Amino acid sequence: MIIEFKDEIKLEKQLTNQEIIKRILSLRKINNLDDFLYPKSPNLISIFDFDEKYQNIFSKAATILKQAKNKKQMVIVYTDYDADGITGGAILWETLHLLGFKTMPYVPDRKTEGYGFSIKGIDKVIKKFNPAVIISVDHGITKIKEVSYTKNKGIKIIITDHHLKGEKTPRADAIFHIPALSGAGVAYFFAKQLYKYFKSPTFYSKLLASYFQADYLLLASIGTVADLVPLIGPARSLVKYGLSAFCDIKRLGIKHILKEAGIEGKKITPYDIGFIIAPRINAVGRLENAIDALRLLCTKKEDKAHHLASYVGKMNRIRQNILEESLKEAKKILSQESKNFTSLKKIIILTSNRWHEGIIGLIASKMVEEFYRPSIILTKLDGFYKASARSISGFHITKFLTHFKKYLVDVGGHEQAAGFTLKEKELKNFKREVEKKADILLKKEDLEKKLIADLKIPISFINLPLVKTIEKLAPFGIGNPQPIFYSEGQLIDAKIFGKKNEHLKILVKCPNKKIRQSIEFLELIGFYQSQLFYQLSPGQKINIAYNLEINKWREEEKIRGKILALKW
Do the domain assignments include residue 331? Predict the structure, then answer.
């Protein structure tokens, strides 16, 4: 692993903790510390703040919906099946429902209908619900043909999405496309504007007012973190205030998800959302129809919430088992194709007819994590290949895939993730062209894992007030990672610990004895890094990349670092 740093604080400099924090934020192009530490409440942000054109677009959408409401016509909230779509769909459907609309949610089946609008899905919706209006959540911006098909049936279409636009825009009646947000984020601000427009002095309107201040912020924060949206600007506001809403959860579905996951009563962080909560919501849509995940988020019945949360937990465990077996097969195929991983190509492309469509994105993520190459995983399905792609830092996988549109039935996604469908007969040509293009675009150094620290800093500068100030920069996540420090140190002691002695603990001090220390030593933990213990000895000079946190034990607060990389 290559370790680099963006900036360095020299020993001879005298900087306050505030100046150190400002230096970190400046490197991230954030110049107003107060605005960042105390972001505006989402309740003070309007959908019109994203673009003034949305005033006219919303006026058109509201007119369409008002007509449907007055005529008691059906409005369908057609939402994506992932955690972002399900949370956004729950917000928008429930808002319309409580405002008195005749409305139903619809979640397409991943296996038979695929992502977003499809002719098959639209036909099912028409047959079952006969809607006057369809509103998308977390999809739609690339579905030219499907939107035209729906419009030709006399149905009004409103799109809310955040994904990358194609060359053409669908001819929907109204489009709210905000890339800075998640699908749930766009749904939140659109629903909030609908509430302001349609609210009346009723019990349900008052209930909705409270939901936008707590429940819906909580749901939008889940969608935002789950979809890896950068936590800056309004997205940061949604997550910061959404995490606060976890302190007093009223929504039964979320309560029971936390209880089933064993984190009830815990202070929820973006990590908990990304690795514990969202995977449970996602699991249903990966393996079956995700409508039950949406029902879980909206139910007002305790027994139903308990039952559905148990079901969601069960689906997640099944998903984990399927993934484990599929990963073994994927690595076996890759090993055979690359001479036991010694001759890996610059992009990984693996195919099988046994992998479940719902977990191919997870396989791709694991390939990137282990081999640090853009990865495309395809599974065979009814004459087509369904594919998920994941990428490395700095390589926009969706833009890359648009070079091969002649082979693709459809494609959509973000910088780091994409999904597409490929005709079976095109696989060989597609694979050859993709590998050829990747070989040109990706340099050898692009495929080396890099850890880029925010600051190289003397250990003598580390102190408890600094770490407390760093914690105020939370929530941490994509676009606002936990600050990484890089220091030169002298090893005082090293130990291994854990049930299987799998973890490493080291004590390090500043190697310059003439410098006055803020702390006597810095304690650092390396999870699953005990193998390094046997290469360390007291007095040894080492270089460490690490995060800082406060370790609280009873009434005592101590600084602790988390080792990200260690060199000597």
Answer: no
